[in-house]
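Cross-posted from the bioinformatics board.
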Amino acid sequence: MKAALLWLVPFMLPLVLHNEVALTVLVFTFILGILAVSFNLIFGYTGQLSMFHAAAFGIAAYATHLSMEYLGVSFWEGMFIAVLVVTALSVGVGTICFRFRLREFYFAIVTLAFSEIARLIILNWSSFTNGSLGINLTEKPTLWVPGRGVVPIEGTRTWYYLSLVALIATVFVCSRVVHSWMGRCFAAIRLNDELAGTLGINVFRYKLISFLVGNAGAAVAGALYAFYLSYIEPNYLSIEQSLAIIAMVLLGGREPVTGPILGAFVLTALPHVIPLSAELRVFVYGSILIITILLMPRGVLGIVTQHRRVF
Amino acid sequence: VLQLVLGQLLNGIIVGTLYGIIALGVTLTFGITGIVNFALGAFMALGAYLGWYLTDGLGLAYPLAVPVAVAATALFGLAADQLLFRFTRNNLINGLIVSIGLISVVQSVLLMVWTTTPKHMHYVLPGVFNLQWFIVPKMKGVVFLLLLAVILLTYVALTRTWAGRAAYAFAQAPEAAMLMGVRTGLLQTGVVVYSTALAGLGGALYASLYSLEVSLGSSYILKGVEAAILAGIGSVMGSLVGGIALGVTEAIGSIFLPQAYRDAYGLVFLVLILLLRPAGLFGSR
């Protein structure tokens, strides 16, 4: 209950915080938080190091835009189509990987292969995607507000509340999944998937469910991110993007469900707090990965909760 | 067309041996320490830049610059092993993430020192070998033969010397090997350092053939890992064959299919192999 009340803080925040930059950082934190929290379902809870997450994120960004442009649907319908597309692709990739029982490193490398293939297709299918130049999105997502009709979603504040609500919804879904019998199946698979199989857990099914739910979350994040930034490019699907997501999860902590949000916040805010050149930023990312793994493998929030349990 | 196919085949084989030398490092490190060392790509880039800098920057003779670059890379490898990889032994995911972090760190350092401008080394050995059917630039031929020799020597050393057999024994049964007097810590460090030296050698030789960009490390380690998996992790000669198979697939694929998807052909091949023969082409399971 206490934790639920904590969610009120970000809702109040724009009332006292008028700094545009700070709010923008928070919007990015929320959207990337959706990405990291949903990835954590696959990585942290089910123990599968998927490299397909950036692909799900990027494919959804393109799918939302393309369906708005060519099918003439609204942003929300476009996002829905994007989630469907990503889910369909994930069923394909997931079925291949899990049916053939690819584990650990092999799973990572095959998902990476699929994600690179997706990136190459987007990069080279210039008539639709404009290649490496990317696309400036001119459409604005709209929202139906009672009393005011359909209004475009513009301005940092509107995006702030929109992305916050989306993040809370993601956290809610993920924590529901994690704390259900499904979550226990995920944990069993993470700890020892052969043993889980002998206990009657359908390993294939639960790995696939985790993969689908996680990628659907990434799809939502992709659509929001693209339209908040008003720009999409093939780098959404890059390996660096995948690594950034892993870094967020590791830094924040795999448990609790909200841990990765902290990681997303630190990695988004860092370039704003300390102005870093592009090279130095990569350096800092890499160092964070190394230091977290070696010194605090449970992440920042993991350490906090661990100590709370002790005292 | 035949001429083109033969030329591409040859290019594929030469690039493939470069993949192979990285794949050998990947295979050895994985077999002995249980981690997949993505940082080998970074060490390859390091070796390449050092090789270029020693020759063109400091004016060392190239045949001298290569061993110096290799030794320097191996030293960095030793430092990385003692400071980082020692703590992630047999933890695949942690080792993977630490090595990925290291690749970012090394690449950004290279960028800060030598900027993004591609570096071209002057021609070390101009001219071509004119064989009956096709023409091979001399340097490419030399690089190919050198890498081939190193891989063969590694194979011989692993099968014929005490240390090599100790490594095999350790890969099969670490505890039994320990009881038989194998100094396991030393062996693991040795293998990690040897793998980085191989990567450094690949890089230093690469520098004489192609222009250098910092991102070469991440693309070559992917190919190296692909090649190692293609062959089946653990097989020494397999990594050579896997590398060549990958290089040839890409080279031939880009003649008949769109060039832009070059990287994808190897990946598709890899996924198929993993699904149909999970142990790789030469693995036994």
